[in-house]
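re: ur question from yesterday

yeah so i grabbed the chain u mentioned. its 303 aa long if i counted rite. heres the sequnce exactly as i have it in my notes:
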Amino acid sequence: MVAKQQILPGLDSPLRGSIKNERSVMAYSFFSLSKEPKTELEPYDDGNVRIEVKGTKAGVATVYDKELLIYAASLIVDKANRGERISPKITFAANDFFRVIHIQSAGTAYERVTGALERLQGTQIKTSIETGGEGTDSWFSWLKDARANYRKDPRTGERVLQSVTLEICDWLYRAIERDNKMLTYHPDYFELGVLEKRLYELARAHCGHQPGFRIGLEKLRRRVGSEMQLKDFRIRLSRIAEKQKPLPEYAFKLEDRSVLRPGAEKKPRQRMKLENVLVVFWRLDRWRDYSLERFPDVDDLED
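ran it thru and got these structure tokens back, copy pasting raw so excuse formatting
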């Protein structure tokens, strides 16, 4: 428990508040879903939002590396909520990060953190999304500075990770400091599979004041950052949707767009064409409001 942890001088940890992240980072794909190194992601451009991501030979940052960024943002918000002075540079205990994301601090934990820091600092992003009322046409990295601080085990000579010092980019810091669009995660987020993590983030980002929303299959694939063939993506979604609790706090279902058109005749249930598949998300606490016809399209929601 956080209350039992010793708060050491010079550290911004432990995290005492909720896990939070910036809404745009949840709603769009900035990270690779694969552990296999990828030097760039497929560019995203829906006519309103444009995102380009490229990395070094170590690969672009992954959804696993993103957990370090989520934790850092949460610490900064936590400090701000307590009325403390904040800055984009923080130092935190490695053990507290491992506690929050539910992994053991032994084994490959040191390599996991140092690898994440390398990819987060090496990844370059260019986007039309503005934060804090400002935008930039230049490339930026998630981290401006990153250091893993360690001690040597006197018995084995191995490096033991003690703390991490990092400085997040101006783009993300402006969003935290000015935009008030930080959203809280359910604690079970870190227990989810890779695709489930992205589906949860998308649902969390868009199921705000409204009980639900709908999105086309191809657009959803692009939003979550999946590189699967569309037919395989549909099969994977169907299997997740059939689970008793597919996502914390949310559920989703695949529906046929063609039956929603004005004057469309009801047809016997049959396999939907891929271009007609709509994925409908809704909040479990508002399931009685589930109405496909009333739910807005994702493009009609305010960012």
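noticed a couple things. The mean pLDDT is 89. also The longest helix spans residues 63-81.
anyway ttyl
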